[in-house]
Write a structure and sequence with these properties.
Blueprint lengths: L1 H4 L2 H4 L9 E2 L1 H4 L10 H16 L3 E6 L2 E7 L3 H11 L4 H14 L5 H15 L8 H16 L4 E2 H9 L4 H16 L4 H4 L5 H11 L2 E2 L4 E5 L2 E5 L4 E4 L5 E4 H4 L2 E6 L3 E5 L2 H6 L5 E5 L6 H13 L4 E5 L4 H14 L4 E2 L4 H6 L9 H12 L4 H10 L6 H7 L1
Parallel strand pairs: 4-5, 11-12, 11-13, 13-14
Antiparallel strand pairs: 1-3, 2-3, 6-9, 6-12, 7-8, 7-10
């Protein structure tokens, strides 16, 4: 059936009549084997004879053995075979797919772009990227994620959309993230050349989808006022962690410090202690909730200076640059210079190939050229934890 539906005869593009045949050994592997079970061979030949009797095939024999089984190439025969197998004609399936994709063209631009690409593939006679049943679920996930405005956990997303708490991670997470990546919406993240799983995590966090509840950690002296009137005082000696969902309910934040410092890694956040500084743990690349919070802080605390403390490696500087770009705030690097690489030389690690690619990218773009060139020339990078440990 598949061979026939892939043929030019099925598409009406062939001027010469084709025949569709199969050797018996392709169906019954032991048919030509001298040691094959005689009863099994007999049963196979009887079933082939029955198909010939029903008008579905013609048997070509050589001596007393079947040499070839030919399909009876009539529309009626093919339709009867489809009915018996319970499958739809390829043209019918393609039209169903075209109808579905056309019905989604008014949805979010990412979905529309995906559907247009599938329609084009079908019209060009190419194989669809996904079976239609799979594509329908993918579009359901995309539709929910792209229109979602509140934090949702991945298992909650899975059961909400697919009524199965594990189906998202098992079958659809990577496919949906691949489509989101190819949409061009996340080109900036893609340029960071993250590990595939980390990249998927960051894309989803941008769209309020998290593997586990997301928290923002603070320490330093400040007063936070929420939209229900609640007031929380943060102290340098008493750090606070708030779920990301709570950030958008903050209406006012008064910071009694002169500096706000974002910190890349949790160990360093817990260890670092500075007077006159309010610390925020970012957990690597920031997401929308953290960006909005930092902007609110700047708007309500005009005299604050902003610093970022991260790893002294190409990723650390890409995180800093991304933070500056997405918040519009001129964060300055803290303890992220050649001096620290020299001071903690014995703790440095060598660059991997991906580090070199990213360092070259920084140099070509004119960003952090001195430190990037030093890392390249001396084959070194440094994790920030040793700095915060020694500064204690």
């Amino acid at each position: 059936m598949q061979k026939y539906e892939k043929s030019k005869s099925y598409k009406g593009e062939n001027s010469v009549r084709q025949s569709f045949a199969v050797e018996p050994s392709k169906i019954f592997a032991q048919y030509e084997d001298d040691f094959a079970d005689v009863d099994e061979v007999k049963n196979f030949e009887q079933e082939a004879a029955l198909l010939q009797q029903e008008g579905f095939v013609e048997i070509v024999c050589s001596g007393n053995r079947i040499a070839k089984i030919l399909a009876v190439d009539t529309e009626n025969a093919w339709n009867q075979i489809r009915d018996i197998l319970g499958v739809k004609e390829k043209k019918v399936l393609q039209q169903e797919a075209l109808d579905f994709y056309a019905s989604c063209l008014e949805k979010h631009a990412v979905i529309s772009c995906f559907c247009k690409a599938q329609i084009e593939r079908i019209n060009q006679g190419k194989k669809e990227s996904y079976p239609l049943d799979t594509a329908k679920v993918i579009v359901k996930f995309l539709d929910y994620i792209l229109n979602n405005q509140q934090e949702i956990l991945e298992r909650e997303l899975s059961i909400e959309v697919a009524h199965d708490s594990k189906l998202w991670e098992r079958s659809y997470r990577s496919q949906v993230c691949k489509i989101l990546c190819e949409s061009g919406t996340f080109d900036e993240l893609a340029s960071q050349e993250l590990d595939p799983k980390e990249f998927e995590k960051k894309i989803l966090e941008e769209l309020n989808v998290y593997p586990n509840p997301s928290y923002v950690h603070f320490k330093g002296n400040a007063k936070i006022v929420f939209d229900n009137g609640d007031v929380v005082n943060v102290l340098r000696e008493r750090p606070l962690a708030l779920p990301s969902t709570a950030l958008k309910t903050i209406t006012k934040i008064e910071i009694s410090e002169n500096v706000l410092m974002t910190v890349e890694n949790l160990t360093s956040f817990n260890r670092v202690q500075h007077d006159d500084t309010f610390f925020v743990y970012l957990s690597g690349y920031h997401n929308t909730a953290k960006r909005n919070f930092i902007r609110l802080v700047q708007q309500q605390n005009a005299s604050l200076e902003f610093y970022h403390f991260g790893d002294i490696d190409p990723d650390g500087f890409l995180i800093l640059e991304n933070l500056k770009l997405k918040t519009g705030i001129d964060f300055k690097p803290y303890c992220m210079s050649v001096d620290q690489l020299k001071q903690y030389e014995k703790y440095c690690k060598p660059l991997v190939e991906n580090d070199r690619i990213k360092a070259n990218g920084l140099i070509k773009s004119g960003k952090y050229v001195e430190i990037a060139q030093y890392m390249q020339d001396n084959n070194v990078k440094l994790e920030q934890e040793i700095i915060s440990w020694n500064e204690r």
